[in-house]
Design brief:
Elements lengths: L2 H12 L2 H21 L8 H7 L4 H12 L2 H9 L2 H4 L6 H38 L11 H9 L12 H29 L3 H18 L10 H5 L10 H23 L4 H4 L1
Length: about 270
């Protein structure tokens, strides 16, 4: 069985109706939560509305949500030795790589769509129907545009157009979510207790916030690199440093799994 066929097959098995409905329901709860708080806030433009729908709750639960989109299924398969039994049809390494790719793609797609749909609502749908009354600050048009471009990290991209900003920032959130999910995936392969492996990414995310409390280190927090709200604008390259560190950790875990591959059967 080719990689392409096995990935497509795994995607079809993962995208069953119950999982899709659960994901949609979970993100609808986020929208309902923010909608219930909306009346207590004032907005100056579409960017402030977009930021409102992404700050607070989502940054607090980001790696937890990323990990559980697919890894609950994968964890159950490991616990029930399902992957071990599939070796009669496909090599173990190919099975794991296929599931890794599906985990990455599915997590990326879910978070990309969530952020991009939010962007479309804030920048196009809401203004078209006049659903939000915007507060006009005592600023000139030039000053308001300057404020938009300097609001927080990644808003520099607005100079290339709103839509480009929306696509690129949604992609950024999706990639980060996929890498966090990959971290959890690899931990499941090297740890015997799945519930510990699935909580370590979230604990690491929270611990880094505590240890990076110094103002000079705050721009390099995992949370600020993805959701840079409530902090002064940084150069975009600074956001790649936390992601790069996480990628290095994932590569190290991948190497460990590869080196221990001969004993992986005992784990499974």
């Amino acid at each position: 069985m080719s990689y392409r066929h096995s990935v497509v097959k795994e995607l079809k098995e993962s995208l069953h109706r119950k999982r899709i409905l659960f994901i949609v329901f979970a993100f609808c709860l986020f929208y309902l939560f923010y909608a219930s708080q909306k009346a207590s806030y004032s907005f100056t433009n579409s960017l402030s509305l977009f930021t409102f729908f992404l700050e607070n709750l989502l940054p607090m639960t980001f790696p937890l949500l990323a990990v559980f989109i697919y890894l609950g299924k994968f964890s159950a398969e490991l616990n029930h030795r399902f992957i071990f039994y599939t070796r009669t049809r496909m090599a173990l390494g190919k099975t794991i790589i296929s599931k890794f790719l599906v985990n990455f793609m599915l997590t990326f797609a879910v978070f990309f769509l969530y952020v991009f749909i939010t962007f479309l609502y804030a920048f196009y749908i809401d203004p078209f129907f006049g659903l939000t009354e915007y507060f006009n600050p005592d600023m000139t048009v030039a000053e308001m545009e300057k404020d938009r471009l300097e609001r927080h990290t990644f808003t520099q991209l607005l100079v290339y157009g709103d839509f480009i900003y929306g696509v690129l920032y949604s992609t950024w959130v999706g990639v980060n979510a996929a890498v966090w999910s990959s971290f959890g995936f690899l931990l499941l392969l090297v740890m015997n207790r799945s519930y510990v492996a699935l909580t370590i990414p979230y604990l690491a995310y929270l611990a880094q916030v505590f240890f990076f409390g110094n103002p000079t280190l705050q721009p390099y927090r995992f949370s600020f690199s993805v959701f840079p709200y409530g902090f002064t604008q940084q150069e975009i390259w600074t956001a790649f440093i936390p992601l790069g560190a996480l990628v290095i950790i994932c590569l190290a875990l991948s190497l460990y799994v590869r080196l221990k591959f001969r004993t992986l059967d005992n784990f499974l």
